């Protein structure tokens, strides 16, 4: 097929996620390698957001590809009740790197499914119903996972799909503190309010958090926040679920984001970087105590593709590649360089209200006015399909061959961990030029 035929067939026959279907005019990706991909016309793009913060190992990692091919030639599929070498190999590899205490695994094929399993496991193991989540969160698109999502996609789904029982907590978002306070004089009110909620809510099975908020702003908590939330959830006998679908696998300079704060959750979910996104795999990891709740009780969950061997051996290969290439350490070092350069851009561009991040995971928040912190757009604008200023910025970057996620009123900078300094500079130079568009619409000094 030529380009027009590919585009026509896809537009006429496919749904595209989280948007109005009219007007979709996708770039056709013809090949990809490392930190770059090429369209069908041969134009090169720097992948400055790892697609959906997923291709941590870069595109086309040879060891992962080889693992997929080899497994396809041995056991391409086995039903979940069977054991395979791939299942044992990945389980053993995970025991070496997961946070302490997480040693029981349920394998699925996406982050959404990993969270769906976590929520069902938490409710079934505790016999309680409610889940405490946060407003600036995204946990997936299926019934339970979208119901614990705080941002606007929950509101767009509630009329057709909703699981009751979610209670929302404030975010640890210092730039826009929900209490109007300033760190450190705030005494971490956002965490202490969780204590108040759990003391009065009742019937709470678990609290689910993204240790570093992903799509909704790459919000890094203050150092005291997660350890205090862990103390509070233990105090109230509430499970803590860490959603590390985006923040794991070296993205923030550790295997898992909770490692930064030495926090040990009861359940951890992940996907994306577990295979470098080269094949779909999701993981729900729990403590033995949670697993023991189902020793003589019915485990109420499962998938045809649970523990699919074709997805598991690539996970083993991916862990080996993170180690061989030193990507955990590289993410820390490159992350410092990235944040330093982004802060230079913040000083230069009046439309940049804040830059923040950890490792190779950063956000640039755009504002009309730095003093008032008024954003260019809101979630309601996104939901209503109104034009977004951030889309003009990302569109300008695409014209210069740099793909970057723009979301409501911020950009997500998350290149593959294999990115070179030269590529980082390339992307940041293009961002520098594109931000002049936002500057023209800013009203503050």
Q: What is the CATH domain class of the largest domain?
A: Alpha Beta
Number of E-type strands: 16
Mean pLDDT: 97
- Span between termini: 51 Å
Portion of residues in helices? 25-40%
The third-level CATH topology of the largest domain is Aspartate Aminotransferase, domain 2
Q: Which stretches of 5+ consecutive residues score pLDDT under 50?
A: none
Q: What characteristic shape results from the CA principal axes?
A: globular
Q: Supply the number of helical segments.
A: 15
Q: Describe the sheet with the most strands.
A: 7 strands, mixed
Structural class: alpha/beta
What do these coordinates show?
The protein is of the alpha/beta class and 445 residues long. It folds into 2 domains: 3-57 and 326-441, Alpha-Beta Complex (Aspartate Aminotransferase, domain 1), CATH 3.90.1150; 62-324, Aspartate Aminotransferase, domain 2 (3-Layer(aba) Sandwich), CATH 3.40.640.10. Helices cover 39% and strands 16% of the residues. The protein contains 15 helices and 16 strands. A 7-stranded mixed beta sheet has the order 4-10-9-8-7-5-6, sandwiched between helices. Strand 1 (29-33) and strand 2 form a beta hairpin. Helix 3 runs antiparallel to helix 11, helix 4 (85-97) runs parallel beside helix 11 and helix 14 (389-399) packs across helix 15. It is globular. The N and C termini lie far apart (51 Å). The relative contact order is 0.15. The mean pLDDT is 97.
Features:
Aspartate Aminotransferase, domain 1, seven-stranded mixed β-sheet, 445 residues, globular, 2 domains, alpha/beta, 15 helices, Aspartate Aminotransferase, domain 2, single chain, five-stranded antiparallel β-sheet
């Amino acid at each position: 097929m030529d380009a027009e035929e590919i585009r026509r067939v896809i537009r006429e026959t496919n749904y595209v996620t989280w948007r109005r279907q009219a007007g979709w005019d996708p770039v056709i990706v013809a090949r990809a390698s490392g930190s770059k991909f090429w369209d069908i016309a041969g134009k090169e793009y720097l992948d400055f957001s790892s697609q959906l913060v997923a291709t941590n190992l870069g595109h086309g990692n040879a060891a992962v590809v080889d693992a997929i091919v080899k497994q396809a030639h041995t056991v391409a599929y086995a039903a979940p009740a069977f054991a395979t070498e791939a299942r044992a190999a990945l389980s053993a590899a995970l025991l070496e790197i997961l946070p302490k205490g997480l040693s029981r695994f349920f394998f699925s094929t996406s982050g959404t499914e990993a969270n769906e399993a976590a929520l069902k496991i938490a409710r079934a193991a505790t016999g309680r119903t409610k889940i405490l989540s946060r407003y600036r969160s995204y946990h997936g698109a299926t019934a339970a996972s979208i119901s614990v999502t705080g941002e606007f996609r929950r509101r767009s789904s509630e009329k057709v799909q909703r699981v009751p029982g979610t209670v929302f907590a404030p975010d640890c978002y210092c730039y826009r503190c929900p209490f109007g306070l300033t760190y450190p004089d705030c005494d971490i009110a956002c965490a202490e309010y969780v204590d108040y909620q759990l003391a009065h809510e009742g019937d709470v099975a678990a609290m689910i958090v993204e240790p570093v908020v992903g799509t909704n702003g790459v919000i890094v908590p203050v150092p005291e926040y997660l350890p205090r939330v862990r103390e509070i959830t233990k105090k109230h006998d509430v499970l803590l679920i860490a959603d590390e679908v985006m923040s794991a696998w070296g993205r923030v300079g550790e295997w898992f984001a909770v490692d930064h704060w030495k926090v040990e959750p009861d359940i951890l979910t992940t996907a994306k970087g577990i295979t470098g996104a080269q094949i779909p795999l999701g993981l729900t990891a729990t403590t033995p105590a949670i697993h023991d709740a189902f020793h003589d009780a019915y485990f109420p969950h499962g998938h045809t593709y649970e523990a699919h061997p074709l997805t598991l051996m690539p996970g083993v290969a991916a862990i080996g590649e993170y180690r061989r290439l030193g990507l955990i350490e590289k993410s820390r070092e490159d992350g410092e360089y990235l944040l330093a350069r982004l802060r230079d851009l913040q000083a230069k561009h009046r439309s940049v209200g804040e830059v923040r991040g950890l490792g190779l995971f950063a956000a640039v928040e755009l504002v009309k006015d730095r003093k008032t912190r008024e954003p260019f757009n809101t979630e309601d604008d996104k939901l209503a399909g109104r034009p977004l200023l951030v889309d003009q910025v990302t569109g300008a970057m695409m014209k210069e061959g740099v793909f970057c996620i723009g979301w409501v009123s911020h950009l997500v900078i998350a290149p593959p961990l294999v990115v070179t300094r030269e590529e980082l500079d390339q992307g940041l130079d293009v961002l520098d030029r594109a931000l002049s568009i936002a500057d023209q619409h800013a009203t503050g000094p």
